[in-house]
Amino acid sequence: MHWSKRNTEEEVQEEVAVWECESTECVGWMRKNFSFDEKPSCPLCGSSMKSGERMLSKLTNLQGR
């Protein structure tokens, strides 16, 4: 039997600006910094989106490595 310690690094969360779908039947949302449009439409249902905020995991940009 093998036992190992997993790397249990605590997940850092931050309040992030997001776009949220205005349709009550859709759960679509996206981070604002992932959108190129001034006011995007929902990628799931095509409805308009409204501005909001969510507590999300902090992302690290690995592109510069």
UniProtKB/TrEMBL annotation:
InterPro entries from the UniProt entry: YdjO (IPR025916)
Highest taxon, organism lineage: Bacteria
Pfam families assigned: YdjO
Name assigned to this protein: Cold-shock protein
